[in-house]
Amino acid sequence: MADRTAPNCHLRLEWVYGYRGHQCRNNLYYTAAKEIVYFVAGVGVVYNTREHKQKFYLGHNDDIISLALHPERVLVATGQVGKEPYICVWDSYTVQTVSILKDVHSHGIACLAFDLEGQCLVSVGLDSKNTICVWDWRRGKVLAAAPGHTDRIFDISWDLYQPSKLVSCGVKHIKFWSLCGNALTPKRGVFGKTGDLQTILCLACAKDEVTYSGALNGDIYVWKGINLMKTVQGAHGSGIFSMNVCEEGFATGGRDGCVRLWDLNFKPITLIDLRETDQGYKGLSVRSVCWRGDHILVGTQDSEIFEVVVHDRTKPFLIMQGHCEGELWALAVHPTKPLAMTGSDDRSVRIWSLIDHALIARCNMEEPIRCAAVSTDGIHLALGMKDGSFTVLRVRDMTEVVHIKDRKEAIHELKYSPDGAHLAVGSNDNSVDIYGVVQRYKKVGECTGSNSFITHMDWSTDSKYLQINDGSGRRLFYRMPSGKEVSNREELKLVQWASWTCVLGPEVNGISPKYSDINDINSVDANFNNQVLVTADDYGLVKLLRYPCIKKGAKFKKYLGHSAHITNARWSHDYQWVITIGGADHSVFQWKFVPERKSKEAVHIAPQETLADSNSEESDSDQSDVPEMDSEIEQETQHTYRRQVYKEDLPQLKEQCKEKHRATAMKKKERAPGSGVKLHFIHGYRGYDCRSNLFYTQTGEIVYHVAAIGVVYNRQQNTQRFYMGHDDDILCLAIHPLKDFVATGQVGRDSSIHIWDTESLKPMSVLRGFHQLGVCALDFSADGKRLASVGLDDNHTIVLWDWRKGEKLSTMRGSKDKIFVVKINPYLPDKLITAGVKHMKFWHKAGGGLIGRKGNMGKMETMMCAVYGWSEEMVFSGTCTGDICIWRDMFLMKTVKAHDGPAFSVHALEKGFVTGGKDGIVALWDDTFERCLKTYAIKRAVLAPGSKGLLLEDNPSIRAISLGHGHILVGTKNGEILEVDKSGPITLLVQGHMEGEVWGLATHPHLPLCATVSDDKTLRIWDLSPSHCMLAVRKLRKGGRCCCFSPDGKALAVGLNDGSFLIVNADTLEDLVSFHHRKDIISDIRFSPGSGKYLAVASGDTFVDIYNVMSSKRVGVCKGCLNYITHLDWDKRGKLLQVNTGGKEQFFFEAPRGKKQTIPATEVEKINWSTWTCVLGSSVEGIWPLINEVTEVTAACLSNDKKVLATGDDLGYVKLFRYPVRGKYAKFKRYVAHSTLVTNVRWTHDDGLLVTVGGGDTCLMIWAHEPEGHREIRQCDSEESDVESEDDGGYDSDVTRENEINYTIKALSTNMRPMTGLKPHLQLKEPSVDERQGVVRPPVSRALPQPEKLQTNNVGKKKRPIEDLVLELVFGYRGNDCRNNVHYLNDGADIIYHTASVGIVLNLTTSCQSFYAEHSDDILCLTINQHPKFPNVVATGQVILVTCQPRLHLFTCGTP
C-alpha cells in the first residue's frame, strides 16, 4: 500500500526573477536598511543589492498590485486583487505581518498611501465606485469610507502639510478630499482655462496647498487649492507614470523612458534618458521612480529595475530583469549545469544562472515561444513556437542551427530522447513529429491517433518508447522512432521512463483532488532520487507529493507565491532546486529543495518557512494510517445545525402570507388568555455535542445551558433562574474571569452571542452580524475585555471582539475542518489557539486579521480541548485518542497518556490540571503532567444520598469539568451534572434525557409526577414537586414515542418505535404485559376514561388498535385512515375516539369495535371530550399560524378547566390560546425556551403546571401556571397574533400622515433626463428679421411694464458679473413633520432650529440669524449635546438620495 501521507521534505523559496512593472505604478522603494522593496506575482520582495539576497513576504493569496512605504521606511503596505482582497502591513526587516485590513474592498486594491505620521493608511478599491477607505491600520479599523469616482483612480496621496487632507487623481479628474469625523468629502479640481481636462496619472503634494500632478500628455499640472494654477509643458514626451517626493525635491518618470529630477520649487535639475544608456532600448517605459540621496531606483514596464547613481547617470546598473508582458510557458533545465531556460510570448528566450541568480543570456526570436527543451549533451536548445514552427539554437552563443515549420498550430511540447538521437515535437495539430538530430533535424517519424492537442510527453530510458498525454485526457504510447502506436499494453509493463512529466497515468493518480477535472494541473515533474513529485496548477499552487502517488486525493505540501496559473515546473539537473514559471505573472521562481534529513534541522531556521509551507489543509482524503475517528466525535463533526426555517425568516414569511389573508385580518379575533405560564424548572443539560460549558459563578451557583436557555442553578435551594434572550439552540458558553458574566452563542442564520450577568440575568452586550449558521466556541481574555468566537460556517471563521463596545477587532477564516475550542492566551491577549478536527493552530492578531500557524506534530490528531499553562508559550491539548499534548509555542514537546478514548475536557488550576474523558474518569495532575495525583471514577456506587436523580450507567463520557468551592463540577454526555467532592462522594444535581428526540410525555392523574419516554431508549418518572428530581428510570430495548398513565395512576403504557408497546407498573416500572402487532412506530397511546377498561394504540401503519386491558386481548381495529396517526382522544363516556393524521385529516371511531363514524362539526363541539390533545377541528382552528406551509403544530393540550389550550410547534414556541379557538389566526401568548421542535405539552392534574418536552433539545421543561391577575409582566410574554386586525386602534390623523410621508424626491429617484445642446444663456442668438432690418419694436410681455427708473438705470452700463450670493435671512421653521427640533443655546441667548437644508441659530436680542449650510438636502432632525463638556455641539440629520449613505453632521455653534 503506497504511503498516502505528505512527504517529509519541503521547498523553500530562494529567488524570484522579475518585477511587476505592467499595469502598476509607484511600487519600488528603498527601505531604511537601504534594501529595495517591490513585488512580483503574489510575493513582496525585499532585495539586498550589496549581498545579492532576497527575503519574501508570503502573506497574500493573489496578485499584489499596490504598495506603499511607511514614513519610517521599515513597514510596507501591499494590496492585492481578488474577490475579497485584503491589505497586509508587514515589516520589511522580519518579513512578518503586522496587520491585515479586510472586509471593505472588492475586486482589488489599486492604490495605497500612508499619512505623514504613519498612523493612517488610505486605500482605493477597484470596485465600480472606486471606494476610498481610510484605516487606523494598527487596529484594522475603518475610520472613513466614500465612493471615490465613477472612473479609475490611479494615484492617491496625503497632503503632508495639512493633516486630514488627501488628493486623488485618475481618468479625467483630480479630487481634493477632507476627512472630518468619519466622512470623506471631495471637491473636484477645477481645470479652468489653464490646461486641458485630461487624465492625471500621478501626484505629489507640496506646502502651501500646492499639488503637482503628472498628466497623460507629459505635462505637469500645478494646483493651488482646488484650482489649476499653471502647467509645466512638455516635462516628458508622453504620459508621466510616476512621481516621487524626497527631501531634495521631486523625481518623475514617464512613458518616454526618461527620469527627470526637479528641485523643491519644481525647477528642473537634470534629465536622465534611459533609452540612450548602454542597457537602454527603444520603447523603454518608466513605471516607478524612487529618489534617495544620490541613488535613484527606476522600474520599467518590461520588468526591469535600474539603479542610477546621480553623479554617474549615464551608467545605470541593471539590478533585476524578468520577462515582459505576455504569457510565459516555456521552461527547460540544462542537463549538466545549474541553468534554466525560459521562453515567453514576449518572444525572448532567456538563460538564468541558478547559482548566481542572474540572467546570463537573452535572445529575441521572431515568434512567441511556447515550449523549450535542451539536448542531452547540453549543446542544443529547441524552442517550439506559437505559429507551429520550431527553432534550434546553440546554447553556447544562441546562434540558430535550424528553423523548421511543419505545422500550423502551436507547438506545446518538445523533448529530446535520452540517447540524444531524436527530438519529439508535439503540436496542437494533434500529432507528434519525430526528427533525427544527427540528420540536421530531418523528419523521421510521425505519431498520429490522438484526437486532441498534445500536452505532455516522456521518453523511455532506452529511447524506444514515447508516452503522450492529450487535451482530451487520453494517454497514448508509440514505438520510436517510427511513431507506430503501441496497442498491446503488455509490452509496456517493463518500460522504465527517463522522466515523468505527464499528468496522466497510475503513478500520478493522486495528484488530482478527488472530484476534479485533471486539466487544472498544468505541469508535473518527478524526482526519482528522492521519490517526490512537484505539480503546478491553475490556482497558483506548487505542491509536493510522494512519488509514485497512486491513490486519488493524496496528501501534499503546498506553496503559495505565484498568483494565478503556473504553467510549468521542473527539477534542476541535480535535484537541488525546483523552477516554476507563472503564466500571467510571467515570473520565474526558484525553490530550494530541503530533503527529509535537513528538514529536521531546518525546523528552527526562518520563521517564514512555517508561513509558506502550509501542510495540505485541503488534501481530500484522510490518511490511511490515522486511527478510526471515535464514534462520539464523528457524530459531533457531522452535526450541521442547519435549519429549514430560521426564526429570522419569520417576519418575512409572515409578510408574504399576509397578502393572501387580507380578508381574515378584518375579522374580530378572540383575545389571548388572561392567565400565563412562567418557566420554573428544566430537567436537562446539553452535553452530547458540547464541551466545557459548565461553571461555578461568583456566588457559588452553577451556570450551564440547555435548549435556548442559559440556566443559573442554586444547588442549596434546588432552584433555577433563566436567561431567555436567545431564540435557538445555545451551542457554547464561556465565563468571564470574574465569574459574574457569561457569554453564550447560538444557532441562527445570523447567529448572535449574548454576554449576560448571572445575577440580574440582563444582557450586557449582544454581538451579531458576523457568524453564519451558528457559534460553536467562545472564550474571554484574562482581562475580560476581549471575547473570541468561532462560527459554524464552512471556514469556521474566528472573530476577536471588544465585547463591551460590540466592536469586531479581527477576523480570519479558521479552518475547513470543524473547530472545537478557542482559547485566548492569558498572558498576551493578542495571541490565541484553536483546536479541532486534525488541527491545532496558533494565532496572533494583526490589525483587522489574525495570522495562524499550524502546530508541528508530524501526524496531526484531532484535538478536543486545550488550555494555556503556567507560561505564555505553554499549551496543553487533549486528543481524540486520550493523550495530552504538551506544546511550547507551536512545537510539540511530548505527549502523556491520560484517558482511554478521547480526552474531552481539560482545566488549568493554580498548581496542576484536571482532565476528563470518554472513559468517565476525572484525573488530577501536577503542573507538568508528569504525575497523576488522583482519579475519580463516576460510578453509581459512590452516588451520595442527596442526589437529585439516578446515574444511568457507570463511567459516563465526561464533556465538561470545572473547579471551585472545594468541588469538581462534571457534565456528562448523558445530560447529567454531578458535583464531585474532593474526598470522593458524588452528588447528582441535574439530569435530562440523553441524545435522541423526546416525544413521549404523560402527567399522573392525581400526583405531581410525569413520565417521559425518548429515542434514547429510556422511560423516566420525574417528580414535579419542589424536590425536582428523577424518581425512576428504566432502559427499554427500543426507543419510544408515547406513554400514558391509567386513570388510577397504577399502570403506565409505553409505545415503542418498533410497533410494540408495554404496560408497566407505574411505581416499579416492571413489565405487566407487552404486545407486538404492528411494524411501524407507535405514535400515541391512551387509556379510556373512568375505569381505564380499554387502551387505544395508534401506529404509523394508519391503524388504531383497541385492547381490553383486563383480558389483555385486542378487541377492535379502527381502519380507514389514509396517513400515519398523530393524535388520539377519548370522549368522557369511553365510547368514542377522535383521531388526527399526518395528512391533517380528522376521523371518529366508535369503541370498542373501531367502527368509523361521520360526525358534523357542529356536533363535535357538543361532545364532552375526556381530554383534548388533537390539533384539528373547528374548536382549535385558530391555533394554526399564518405560515403553516413551513411550520406544524405538533402538540396541544387543553387544561382540565377547559379554559386554556397550550400548543407546541416545530419552531420551538409554546403558545397559550383561550379555548375554544374559533376563527383563524387567534391571538396568543408565546414563550421561547425550547430551541427547535416542541414535541409534546401536558397540563398537570390540577392545572398548576404545564410540562413540555423538546425534540432535539432533549429537555423536560416545567412551567408554573399563573392565573389572571397575579402576573408580573415579563419579556417572554408576547400577546400577538400573526395578523394584525384593524380594530387594534389606528393613529391620530397627524401621526398617520407623518407615518406615510415618503422622503424620496421624485427628481432624485429617477435618472435625470439626458441634456443635449447648449444652455440658453450660452446660445448665440439668431438675429430676427426686424433686427436684420434695423427695426426696433417694443417687447411684448404679459407682465406689468417695468417702471421707468429701472429701465434707465441699465442704459449704457456694462452688465456686471454676478457676485456670490450670501444667505441673509430665512423665514420658516420645519414643524409639519418634525418634533423636538428647537433648542436653547448659550444659556438661553440664542435658539437653534432648522428648515429646508439649513440649521439656523437666531440671537434673541439682536434677531440676527447665522447658518450651518453644509447639508445637501432637507434636514429632518436636530439635537444638542446636553453634557457640560460639549457645550453648543449640535447634530443634524438629512434626507438622502436612494443610492448614497445617509449623512449625519456634528458642528459647534459659537455665539454669532
Backbone structural class: mainly beta
* Overall pLDDT metric: 84
Main sheet characteristics:
8 strands, antiparallel
Number of extended strands: 110
Helical fraction equals under 10%
Number of helices: 10
What ranges have pLDDT less than 50 throughout 5 or more consecutive residues? Answer: 599-627, 1272-1279, 1281-1290, 1305-1315, 1335-1357
What is Rg? 40 Å
In angstroms, what separates the terminal alpha carbons?
A: 89 Å
Beta-strand portion reads: 35-45%
Question: What characteristic shape results from the CA principal axes?
Answer: globular
Summarize the structure in words.
- 5% of the residues lie in helices and 45% in strands.
- The chain has ten helices and 110 strands.
- A hairpin with a 5-residue loop joins strand 51 and strand 52.
- It is globular and about 115 Å long.
- About 6% of the residues have low confidence.
Summarize the structure.
This protein is mainly beta and 1456 residues long. It has 10 helices and 110 strands. The strands form 26 sheets. Strands 6, 7, 8, 9, 10, 11, 12 and 13 form an 8-stranded antiparallel β-sheet that branches.
Keywords for this entry:
6-stranded antiparallel sheet; 1456 residues; single chain
Strand and helix map with partners:
Blueprint: E1 10-17, E2 29-30, E3 36-40, E4 43-48, E5 53-57, E6 64-69, E7 75-82, E8 87-91, E9 97-101, E10 107-114, E11 120-125, E12 132-136, E13 141-146, E14 153-158, E15 165-170, E16 173-180, E17 183-188, E18 200-205, E19 210-215, E20 220-224, E21 227-232, E22 240-245, E23 250-254, E24 258-262, E25 268-273, E26 286-292, E27 295-300, E28 305-309, E29 317-320, E30 328-333, E31 339-344, E32 348-353, E33 358-364, E34 369-374, E35 380-385, E36 389-394, E37 400-405, E38 411-416, E39 422-427, E40 432-436, E41 442-447, E42 454-459, E43 465-470, E44 475-479, E45 484-485, E46 521-527, E47 532-537, E48 542-546, E49 557-559, E50 566-571, E51 577-582, E52 588-594, H1 596-602, H2 607-612, H3 631-638, H4 650-660, H5 662-666, E53 676-683, E54 695-696, E55 702-706, E56 709-714, E57 719-723, E58 730-735, E59 741-757, E60 763-780, E61 786-791, E62 798-802, E63 807-812, E64 819-824, E65 831-836, E66 839-846, E67 849-854, E68 863-868, E69 874-879, E70 883-888, E71 891-897, E72 903-908, E73 913-917, E74 921-925, E75 932-937, ...
Antiparallel strand pairs: 1-52, 2-3, 3-4, 4-5, 6-7, 7-8, 7-10, 8-9, 10-11, 11-12, 12-13, 14-15, 15-16, 16-17, 18-19, 19-20, 20-21, 22-23, 23-24, 24-25, 26-27, 27-28, 28-29, 30-31, 31-32, 32-33, 34-35, 35-36, 36-37, 38-39, 39-40, 40-41, 42-43, 43-44, 44-45, 46-47, 47-48, 48-49, 50-51, 51-52, ...
